[in-house]
Write a structure and sequence with these properties.
With 235 residues, the chain is α+β, with helices and mostly antiparallel strands. Helices cover 24% and strands 27% of the residues.
């Protein structure tokens, strides 16, 4: 006679505070772990020691970058840093679009800790993004700027081209610090940007009204900032 198997089916009991409350604990723990991982990752990126702000000033040509949609159509990209009387740095990002139009906008950079001058923060219209100098030549003819997430990397030079051997040194240094250099996209040469950059953006919602050209340049910089930004959290 075949043996009868008795199967007990457990009935799902709703959480007394509702289904979302039931997941709140695990979700909170997951978010906490994510935040801790991000914090550890943020502290683990070594920056170039003894960066001298005065020597970092001036115009830089972008040689390569980890590509982002907001910079897709940029050629001949430059970044120019100027010291302000209030101690901040004015950061002007400019490029020529592939259709010939000019894009340029201004952001403000600060060094939160004077003891670590290589760790800059750039304010892109309300978004504060880490902008860390991870490598710089002794004579400041080239530099590499990255983000602690390793998802953002810019290789900069005082000239529009870099000798291959010199570029290899920078790439090897970035790779040693955890960056995937195979993701880099080399900036196409183009005419030097000719135009007037928008002023620093204070509020993202006012970008369009503050620019005579429809807010394109401000939108470019603010979008870059939004991608790499982290909101200030009562530090």
């Amino acid at each position: 006679m075949p043996q009868r198997v008795q199967v007990h089916v457990a009935r799902e009991v709703p959480h007394p505070a509702g289904p979302m409350r039931a997941y709140a604990g695990p979700m909170r723990r997951a978010l906490l772990l994510l935040a801790l991982a991000a914090a550890c990752n943020r502290d683990s990126l070594e920056v170039a020691p003894g960066v001298e702000q005065q020597k970092f000033l001036g115009k830089w040509f972008e040689i390569a970058r980890i590509p982002r949609a907001v910079e897709r159509d940029c050629v001949g990209t430059t970044a120019t840093y100027t010291a302000r009387a209030d101690g901040k740095l004015e950061f002007v990002h400019e490029c020529t679009l592939t259709d010939g139009r000019y894009h340029g906008a201004t952001a403000l950079a600060t060094v939160p800790d004077a003891k670590i001058p290589g760790k800059m923060e750039v304010d892109f219209g309300g978004h504060v993004g880490d902008y860390w100098v991870i490598d710089v030549a002794p004579d400041y003819r080239y530099a590499a700027v990255g983000h602690p997430s390793r998802d953002y990397l810019w290789i900069l030079s005082r000239t529009s081209t870099m000798p291959p051997a010199e570029l290899r040194v920078v790439l090897d240094g970035a790779k040693a610090k955890g960056f995937d250099t195979t993701r880099l996209e080399y900036t196409a040469p183009g005419p030097e940007p000719q135009g007037t950059p928008t002023p620093p953006v204070t509020y993202g919602c006012s970008m369009g009204s503050r620019t005579g050209g429809g807010g394109g340049g401000a939108l470019l910089v603010a979008a870059i900032g939004a991608l790499v930004s982290r909101r200030r959290r009562g530090r």
